[in-house]
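Replying to the earlier thread about multi-chain prediction with a worked example.

Input:
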Amino acid sequence: MSALRPTKFLRRGVAAVAAVALAGSLASCAQSERETGSTADEAGGGDFVFAASSDPVMLDPAMASDGETFRIARQQFEGLVSAKPGTTELEPLLATKWEGSEDGKSYTFTLREGVKFSDGTDFNAEAVCANFDRWYDWTGVNQSENITYYYGKLFRGFKTGKTGGIYDSCEATSPTEATVKLNTPFASFVQAMTLPAFSMQSPTALEKYNADDTQGTEEDPRFSAYATEHPTGTGPFVFDSWERDQQVVLKRNDDYWGDKAKIDRAIIRTISDPKARTQELQAGNIDGYDLVGPADVQPLKDAGFQIQNRPAFNILYLGMNQKNSALKDVKVREAIAHAIDKDAVAKSSLPQGSLTAKEFMPNMVEGYNDSVKDPAYDVDEAKKLLKEAGQEDLKLKFAYPTGVSRPYMPSPEDTFAVIKSQLEKAGIKVTPVAAKWSPDYLDMIQSKGGADKHDIHLLGWTGDYNDPDNFIGVFFGTKSYEWGFDNPDLFKALAAARQLPTREKQIPAYEKINAQIADFIPGVPLAHPAPSLAFAKGVEGYVASPVQDEVWNNVTVTR
Amino acid sequence: MLRFVIRRILLMVPVLFGLSVLLFLWVRALPGDPARALLGEKATPESIASVNAQYGFDKPLLQQYLIYTSRLLRGDFGNSPRTGEPVLGTFIQRFPATVELGVAALIFAVVVGIPLGYLAAKRAGGWLDSFAVGTSLAGVVIPVFVLAYLLKVVFAVGLHGPLHVLAFLPSSGRQSARIDATHITNFYVLDGLLTREWDASWDAVVHLILPAIALGSIPLAIIVRMTRASVIDVLNEDYVRTANSKGLAPGLITRRHVLRNALLPVVTVIGLQTGALLAGAVLTESVFAINGIGSYLFTAISNLDFAVLQGFILFIALIYAVVNLLVDLSYGVIDPRLRTR
Amino acid sequence: MTILDAEQGPIDEGLFDPPAGDERGTSLWQGAFRRLRRNPSAIVGAVIVVAFVLVAIFAPVLAPYEPAGTQWISQVTPSSVPGPSPGHLLGLDSFGSDMLTQLIYGARQSLIIGVVSTTIGLLGGAVLGLIAGGLGGWWDTGVMRIVDILLSIPSLLLAVSIAAVMGRNPFAIMIAIGAAQVPIFARLLRGSMLGQRRQDYVLAATSLGLRQRRIVMSHVLPNSLGPVIVQATLVLATAIIEVAALSYLGLGSADPAIAEWGRMLVKAQDRLQSDPRLAILPGICIAITALGFTLFGEALREALDPKSRR
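Result:
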């Protein structure tokens, strides 16, 4: 290296000095934000790391409608009522008692005493009314379906702008008693209060952080500081931090009124690829995740992981589009129903524990009718009916979605392949039509332009809470491009049943409607697939809920 | 030198301009109403109207293009209709992850590829040569996501049976969720060094190993081949023969002449492979759940989020142009003969 | 996506040892053929390519069952797919079709996609390259700027963009992959034509008063073909791999049970741990075929390289 010329040497030297100086100055302004001393194992509780499929939209459940936002909200917020762990039955939460009036237009809630929001303010009847009024008073962008879907859908209107809602007023008759008045009966009102969208939030914090100050446009909202940084509820966890697309960290609420959380922190990591979630669990980087792929269940069990089946509160169906003239004939629709072996569909393409379906709602929903007609699997009968209808050479375009896994449809490709081969056995020719789940598939199934592109299709639904209208009302309430039929009797019956003031009166009406649907055969209800959750060996105290009402305060993790 | 730089930058302008025209026409060519194509499943009549107003899809074509370009020039790449977030902001936030991965992949390719290519050249025709050539071909014929999965299953998740011991690396993400790390620049390795959280930095490095090998297989192939070829060439050059006959130590010859000359192709490869690396990152990041721009694009493709795709392609072209400018400039530094050009 | 990009130029550093021997007095192609015969990797490549083409053509004769049959789907469950048995030498696939049949028909599918997309790329590139290299001047500048722009987009992304516009039909993928190769072929053809134009024989023809078009068509073009043929061979390999990548990105064919290697490979990722056979078999097919075309293409490039004749 004797050949090193002085100029070069000098240049390098300068560069080196500059580099060191730069690094030094960067380091001096870079400060570790670590809290020293408070490591996880000190308190004995540790962390519970759960993998979610996507980031929450934001943290204020009142403005959300997606499962991942709700999952996080359920840890921090509580509603007036909740679903009993593992069921769809109502259970007291912030309200200890409730009573509906005979006409179905007034509900009185008796509130739990001694509950505080995590900002230290009291939870009382005034806070309840403040929340109801907050929803009712929303204006502008906040009224859009994209933001406040559930309030808009269930209460159907606001004070100004999109008026005509069913909410009338809320009155705090005493600190522990609030009465909500409606101007139209809504039999599922109390059930709807189990939704995180209607959980109770601290009025003080809502105001302090301008919760309703949503900027931007309907399709591109910019949420307030409250919704992104300061969610404040009464739940067993409080918000700690949110690193976009990475993770949300929640801390134990040490002042929680109920069973305090056993873990110190709940970390919800975002891992969008389902296979990556499985592998993270196997590698020990996470403690649990939702929506286990059917193919992963057995290998995970074999490797000693825990699998929990969520009681199926959903329906997977084969839709038929009566825009196709062949499908207008009920004999053809019945033939298709006979051609499908639901047991085989469940066995080959759905997770263990899935049940076959005979109507368009699971049996735990009130209004389920045990005695409806269910066409049995019978290929000869199917062929006979097709012959009677003069459709021996029936050709159908069969649509299914790709790139998606839904709780009610964990692997659409596989389900499609099974049904296709069954239909072919009955002599029906099938042309596959595949489309991306979002936006193409839903667009094709539900919009006018797509009506000619599919004759039969796969779709389903997960219920929000125990309400028959939340199933069959969604599917068959009005004329739609998805089904392409016009059945005024059915539409009228559904509209009438929805208006009945109490559940007791609704049940017989919906049972009748279910029988009516079974005779009409608009589609084939296939199954209620059981979504599975997977956990590491040391996780205990997690109770899977059919309506995803899962709060993690009793979860423990031992490593 | 300065004139060269200015000329090169000026040359980039028509290319980027042309690309913006192509991308503009591309969205127009998408099936269906462009506003609907951009908005996706949440399209309502009102939102379609507002996008039409925003992009002026109801105006004459030329005027639409002007609106589009003026937005671009203001740094407004539009918003993703799916997430509502601005495309450019998301890119900037996610870019460090991809740069970190790309650099790690190049380091892997260089550290493995140059010695391999060098040894192959020295023993041209021998088994080492065949091995080097074979390795470089493996990178070509195995799809990158398949390689990524294989690495992940073997070295992170673990096979059944005795081979399970091989699984000692993290399977996904950029840092363990259980590590409490402070992030300043979003380059996690760097952040750990700056804040002296050494464990966080190390953890980030360990997370990079498998993705870097998978992605690095793309440039590895070229680096091996180019190093091998240029070393063979250089070894046959007169000045090396002279040096040899002068009795200079072989190590010195290698350092002074051979490797220096071999650097040239490597730099070229970096320039040429930027695009391929970014495309490979789409697949690699999604396999390893790394939240960079690659996995963002993967989601955009899966959801046909055209606003993001449009912005991303422009962004990649820009990066490609800048990297190639830097590469051209570095030629002058590495090879004095090219300086006068 | 792969390293086989045009920037390397048609005449690249050789991978393999220059063959020895005196070849004076033979034409370019005769010499190339002779060199190919002496190159072991060319022979390996050629054998793979020929075997692949034969399997693809005679798939109906070779395959034991109908493709995409899904007849045995009742034997498949989410946690298990039946493995090899006397009736199914390689077992079933996850849709209940015979694996061996699917792989054999997959070769046919790959050949079709490869040939069609390469032809599209070649024709498109030839048109652009001819305009640029043949007409020169402003035409050259204009066309090559467009080519530059397209080259700055990675070919996989270009293919994705095109596939998105085309919608989901059987030809979308072929057109997408083929169109993504157009700029590469265009640059290649132009470069090699410009190289030829400077040759003495072109000068001679020009001085003899032959018309420009005549010179291009009957002299320059034929002599520029070598590198293009090499590139076409290599693009076939790229196409087979890119189909897999596009399937991975969810842009594959509508029928999930179709006999297509990339599609099968992607589908098998779900069961990678429980049944690696499902991924390994189509993976091997893709790798071997791509290897065959790559080896053969590289050897051909080497053989046609005038430098290697020294």
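Chain B is about 75% helix and 0% strand.

Feel free to reuse this layout for your own posts.
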